[in-house]
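## Example pair
The file below holds two records. Each record gives the amino-acid sequence first, followed by its C-alpha cell line.
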Amino acid sequence: MVTQTPPQSGQGAGAGATGQGAEPSARQVAGRRWRSARGVVAVILAMIVIAIVLAALRPSTSAQALDPESPKQDGSRALAEILRQNGAQVTVARHADDAVKAAGPGTVMVVTRTERLTNEDLILLSNAQIDLLLVRPTSFALADLAPNVRKDGATFEDADEPGCSLQAATLAGAVAFHESETYEVRGGSATQCYKTEYGSPRIVQVQNGSHTITVLGSASPLTNRRLTEEGNAALGMNLAGAATGSSVVWLVPDLPESGSGAGQQSLTDLLPFGVKLFFLELLVAVVLVALWRSRRLGPVVAEALPVVVRSAETVEGRARLYRAGHARDRASDALRSGARERLVPLLGLPRSRAQDPSAMQEIVSAVARRTTYDETYVGAALYGPEPLDDAGLIALSDVLDDLERQVRQS
C-alpha cells in the first residue's frame, strides 16, 4: 500500500529523459532571485543615500563650538559681546572649579560642552548654589544636574510661540531652534516652553531650592550664525540673565586628559541625528517588506507528493510525532477510531456508525457477542480513557488487535 500511485512507466521514462533539460541553471536561479529582491535592495540603497545626505547637510561641530571667545559660525562671541554691552559681566571659565569660584550671588552659569565634564565636575556643579543654564546637556549631565528631566528625542519643528510663562521666552517670542533636543519631566513641577506638536518641550526650567536650572535643547540661539534669526538673540540674552544685570560665568570645559573619567555619553548622545533617522527608516522598511512578502494561509490544496511514500513509513512517522509530543490521548483515539472503522463492516453495521457516539452501545454489544470478552471490557477498549503510559498504549493496541481477530474469525 502506498499514499500515491506511482507514475506510469511511459511517463516516468519521459520525465527521466527530460529531467536534465528541465533543471534550471545557476544563472537562471540567480536571475530569478535578483528579480524578486531588487525592490528591497533599491529601498535600502535609497535609505542609505538619504542618511548620507542628511549627515552631510548637518553642520559639523568644531572644537570652539559655543565658545564665547570664538568668532566662528558655531561660536558664541557675538552673544557674549551683546551681554557685555548691556552691562553684564561675562567671565569665561575653562574648568568647573574655576567657574564655581568666579560665581557669586546672582550669577548665571552657562554650561556648554557637558560631554567634557568629569564626574567630579558634575558633582561640584550640582552642589553649587547658583543658577545654571545647561545648553544641550548629555544624559549623564542631566542625571546629576537636573534629575527630573530626561531626553525625549530630537526634532526639527518650528517654534512659533513659547506657550509658557517663562519671561525669557515670552520676551523672545518665536525662536529658530533648528535641530533641537526635546525633554520629558518626571515628577516635580517645571516650566516647559516651546513644545512640539507631541507636547515635548525644548526648554525646561526647574527649581533647585532658591536657584533655577534651565535646560536648553538647542545650541542655535547662542551661536554667531543663528543669533540674528527670529528671537534668538533675545532668548540667549534673557536666559543668560542680562535683563537683571547679573554677572555671567560661561563654562566651556577644555578637552579632558585621558583617563580623567570625562566624555561620558550614552549611545543616543553619540549617534548623529541622521544615523538615528536611518535606523528608523530601516525599521519601517523591514516591516513593510515583511508585510509585502508575507503569505496568508488559504484553503488546503491537495497536491501529489513528489515521491512515493510507503504506508508503513507514514504510520511510523506519525507514531514518532505522537511519542515526541507525549500525545497518548491522540494516539489512543487514532487506534480506537481505526479499530471501529474496521470492525463495523464485519458486524454488518453501516460505516457511518463507526464514529457515531449514539451507536456506542450497539457496537460494544455486537463485538461482545462475537468475542470472549464482556461488554465492560470491550467498552473500555473501544471507548475508554487514554492510557497512563506508553506501556498502556501498547497494551491497548494488543487488545484492539485481539478484538478484531476474534470478530473476523467468528
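Second record, same layout:
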Amino acid sequence: MKQRGRHRRRRRGAALRAVLTGTALALTATATLISVSQAEVTGDPGALKPLSAAADTAPLRLQEHLIPARALDRLSAAMGGAAGVSTVIDDTDRALREGSACSADDRASLPVAPSPARAYCWDPADTTSGAWRPASVTTSGDADEDGVWGRHRVVLAGWTHSATTGRATERGLARVAFVDADDPGRLAYRWVLLVIPVQGGRDYRGLTSDVSGMVWHHNKLLVTTSTGGAEALYVYDLDRIQRTTVDGPAIGRVPGGWSADGYRYVMPAVGSYRFTSGRCSASGPPCPGALALDRGTSPDSLVAAEWTAPDGDRKARLWRYAFSSDPARGGLLATDRAGRADAVEAYRTRAAGIRGVLSYRRPGTDTASWYVGRLPSSRDGRGALWRQDGKGARAAHCGADASHHCWARSAGSLSFWQETGEVWSLSDRMLFALPLASLDRSLN
C-alpha cells in the first residue's frame, strides 16, 4: 500500500488534524472539570494488577483455525470475483449528518467531558427501529500507519441486530458500515453483511454474533463473538468482499444467484480463533468484549478487555496478543507451529462493564496507559472513561456534583488513529472523534 501519494496524504492529514483540534462542538452540556484530588471518586478501578502465573495466562491461549483457501476461492469464483474496500466506498448510499444537524436525543448520547471535536449521527432509517445497535469501531488508521487504504480514509463501524426484535431474517446478524471519511464534513457509508462460508465454500450463512470489538490490521478484520460461543474471534479479509446478485430476504445461495437479506455486499470469514481451554464463561476463559490495536509494541499487538456485566461483582481482565511479523500472515496473530497464540501481557482491573479499551505508550515512558470506557451500573445513565496503569486510575469529572460519569451513553469501542492523533468511538446513537490530547487533559 506504500505506492499511494504520500504528499497528498500529508496535506489531507494536516487538514483533518486542524479540524479535529479546533474548537469542540457545543453538542453537550457544559462540563465543569474537577481534578481527581478535589473530589471523592466512586467506582475507582484502581491500579492494574499484572497477571503472570500460568494459572492466569493459560486460559488466554488461542487456537487458530483458517478456512482453506480453496473453499474461499470457490465461493469467490461462484459469486463473480471479489470486490475491494474502494468498490464499497465508491458505492456509498447513505449519509452521516454532522452533529449540529442531529436531534437533541442523538446529541445527548455524546460524552460531556471531554466533548467531541466532531460528531455524526446515522441515517434515521438505521436508528429509528432500535433493533440494530452500533458497538465497535476501527479505521484505516489501524489498517495502515499512513491512515489511507487504497484511495480513501475509511471508518468501519460494527452493528449487531437484537436477537429478539425486528424481522426474523435479521435477528442476531452483524453488519459493518463502511464509512467514506475522506471529507470530514461529508461522511457517507454503505452496509456490508458479515457471513460465514459453509459447505466448503458452496454457500454462506449470516454471522449470528455480537461484534462488540473490532480491529482492522493490514487486510484483516478481527471481530469479537458472542459470549459463550466456541470462537473467541472471527477473522475477515477486506480483499474478499463479495457482491450479491439477488435482492431478497434469504441469506446465501438462492435460485438465480446470491442473496443477503437485501444487502448488496457480504464479507465471508476466512478463519477464527478459539480458546484452547473451552468456551469463554465466568469460570473459564474471558469472553473478549472490546478490542483495539496498539502500535506502540513491536510487533503491533491486539489488546482486549473482558466482557463483564456493569453491575456485577466480577472484575475484568485486560490482555494482549502479538500480531504476526510474517508479511505472508499480515493481520493474523503470531502463533507457534501448532497454530497457538499466547497472551504476551495480562492484567486484572477492578473495572466492570468495559465496552472500550485502548493501550497507549506516551513518548519517553516505559509503560503503557490503558484507557477503559465503562458502562454505568444502570444502562439508563452515562458511562465513565478511566486511564489506568500500575500506579492508579484517573477519570474526568463533570457537573456540579463532580460525577465521573461523563463518557458516552452506552459507549462502544475505542480506536486510536495514530496519524491524526484522534480517538474514534461510538455512543448508542452517534459516531464521534476527539484528540487523544484533549482526552488526556480531561484526565489530568
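Notes on the second record: The CA atoms of residues 99 and 403 lie 25 Å apart. The first strand starts at residue 49 and ends at 50.
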